[in-house]
């Protein structure tokens, strides 16, 4: 129930108890309906001119097991490769009983104040966020990772930083309807979608960039920094087309010439996006250039994607290209490109899908491919079988491949059970893994899950195992 509804109900009750004269004066409270006039819903508070929307989320995750020796993986140039868990070694393989655990919570609350103006809705946005990720490896000292305070360096080889403090994750103003102007601290307008493979098992390099393609880790620079302090404009052109432009990372500095390796930023990033979303089709092209504030562009990139649904068939085509100038080896350029194509076909009881990818860091090219089949065995039960292959040319490690089978079953309307069993060969070693997950979504914005994963022993790690629990509640 909305807060303003409670207020109206309380005042109405008071009015009825004191006679019709006061009840007739309830018209002074019609300003509490400003949220309805603006078309806003959810958890709201109204004044005579503004509607305040409140949303938020609290999430806690606890992980326990023997899993920190992540020495088995498939090498990709994107972000260090795809890794599997592994147990540690004692004096001899199989003799290490030291355990690992993680205790992490994420919490945020967002306030959006909206009022009408001659140019469209005028908004002020504030988002408070805190992340604390306490970690213990091999029953050793506690350290923190992923906290909103950031990494504060190392002492005796161990990372040192504290539990996350509450920070203003977003603080910006916006105005407009079909054309919206935004300024302050917020996320990027970059569109990097329309690029996810349709196979059940993700492609290797695609998985390492959080599904899709990337303009890459650009050597000699931090890359194309985005978000942060921004000035942005988006405009709806009609017929499904939108354009966006902005200046982002306006708080970035140029490379530190005295210690160039310590600060390889571009001073400000210019972003432009053209996107289309129609019936069954979405597509975009995003361009970005870092270093525009001082007139020296150190890096630039392009990301494009197309996703279309045609009756029983789906198609995804995507590509990205990045270019950077090395700030240490002056005069040296670096190029990076990544492409992906995927298609699927759905029939009465099953779906078949395939995908291919390629990535080049300027010195060599990696290739990858994958395929899967999904069977709807009964209502609520789906069986997936898939495989993927990757040629690790950039790392010089040869071919890697994986095969797996999984099942997803809706036990009740709120409980889902999933399981997966697979085998991976990375060209120098192999591994067998299995996992099972129980997820519960009883409604009310609450979800929770428990997942167990086990991997076989490899040449450099004992059997790895991990138990993950997660609890989350969102509100709006």
Explain the overall architecture.
The protein is mostly beta strands. The chain has one domain (49-475): monomeric porin ompg (Porin), CATH 2.40.160. Helix content is 6%, strand content 54%. It has four helices and 26 strands. It has a 20-stranded antiparallel barrel. A two-stranded antiparallel ribbon has the order 3-4. It has a two-stranded antiparallel ribbon with strand order 8-9. Strand 20 (365-378) and strand 21 form a beta hairpin. The protein is globular and about 65 Å long. The protein starts with a helix and ends with a strand.
Helicity, as a percent range: under 10%
Strand content: over 45%
Q: Count helical runs.
A: 4
Q: State the domain count.
A: 1
The H-and-E topology, N to C, reads as HHHEEEEEEEEEEEHEEEEEEEEEEEEEEE
CATH domain class: Mainly Beta
Q: What would you give as the CATH superfamily?
A: monomeric porin ompg
User: How does the major sheet shape up?
Assistant: 20 strands, antiparallel, barrel
State the CATH topology: Porin
Shape: globular
Instruction: Give the strand tally.
Output: 26
Structural class, by secondary structure, is mainly beta
* CATH arch. level architecture: Beta Barrel
Distance between the termini: 11 Å
What's the short version?
By secondary structure, this protein is mainly β. The chain has helices spanning 3-17, 20-24, 34-37, 204-208, and strands at residues 44-46, 50-66, 72-74, 82-84, 100-115, 122-136, 142-144, 154-155, 158-159, 167-176, 179-186, 228-238, 241-248, 269-278, 281-290, 299-310, 313-325, 333-346, 350-360, 365-378, 381-392, 398-410, 415-425, 430-443, 446-455, 464-475.
């Amino acid at each position: 129930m909305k807060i303003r509804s409670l207020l109206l109900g309380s005042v109405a009750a008071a009015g009825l108890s004191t006679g019709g004269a006061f009840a007739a004066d309830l018209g002074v409270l019609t300003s509490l309906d400003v949220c309805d006039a603006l078309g806003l819903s959810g958890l709201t508070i109204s004044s005579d001119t503004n509607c305040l929307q409140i949303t938020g989320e609290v999430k806690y995750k606890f992980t326990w097991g023997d899993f920190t020796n992540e020495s088995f993986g498939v090498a990709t140039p994107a972000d260090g490769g795809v890794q599997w868990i592994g147990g540690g070694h004692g004096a001899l393989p199989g003799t290490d009983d030291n355990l690992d655990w993680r205790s992490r919570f994420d919490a945020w609350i967002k306030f959006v104040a909206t009022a009408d103006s001659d140019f469209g809705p005028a908004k002020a946005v504030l988002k408070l966020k805190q992340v604390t990720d306490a970690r213990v490896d091999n029953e050793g000292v506690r350290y923190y990772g992923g906290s909103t305070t950031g990494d504060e360096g190392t002492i005796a080889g161990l990372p040192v930083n504290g539990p996350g403090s509450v920070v203003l994750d977003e603080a910006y103003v916006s105005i407009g309807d079909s054309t919206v102007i935004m300024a302050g601290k917020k996320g990027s307008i970059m569109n990097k979608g329309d690029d996810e493979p349709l196979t059940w098992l993700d492609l290797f390099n695609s998985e390492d960039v959080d599904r899709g393609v990337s303009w890459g880790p650009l050597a000699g620079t931090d890359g194309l920094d985005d978000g942060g302090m921004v000035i942005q404009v988006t405009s709806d052109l009609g017929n499904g087309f939108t354009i966006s432009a902005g200046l982002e990372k306006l708080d970035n500095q140029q490379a530190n010439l005295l210690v160039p390796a310590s600060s390889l930023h571009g001073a400000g990033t210019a972003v432009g996006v053209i996107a289309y979303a129609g019936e069954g089709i979405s597509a975009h092209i995003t361009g970005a250039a870092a270093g525009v504030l001082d007139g020296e562009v150190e890096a630039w990139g392009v990301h494009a994607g197309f996703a279309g649904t045609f009756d029983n068939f789906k198609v995804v085509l995507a590509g990205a290209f990045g270019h950077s100038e090395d700030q240490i080896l002056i005069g040296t350029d670096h190029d990076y490109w990544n492409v992906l194509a995927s298609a699927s076909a759905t029939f009465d009881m099953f779906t078949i899908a395939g995908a291919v990818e390629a990535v080049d860091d300027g010195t060599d090219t990696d290739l990858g491919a994958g395929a899967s089949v999904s069977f709807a065995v009964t209502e609520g039960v789906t069986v997936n079988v898939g495989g993927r292959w990757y040629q690790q040319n950039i790392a010089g490690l040869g071919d890697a491949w994986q095969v797996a089978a999984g099942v997803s079953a809706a036990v009740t309307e709120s409980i889902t059970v999933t399981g997966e069993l697979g085998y991976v060969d990375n060209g120098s070693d192999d591994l067998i893994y299995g996992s099972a997950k129980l997820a519960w979504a009883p409604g009310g914005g609450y979800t929770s899950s428990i997942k167990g994963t086990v991997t076989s022993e490899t040449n450099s790690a004992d059997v790895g195992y991990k138990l993950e629990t997660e609890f989350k509640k969102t509100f709006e």
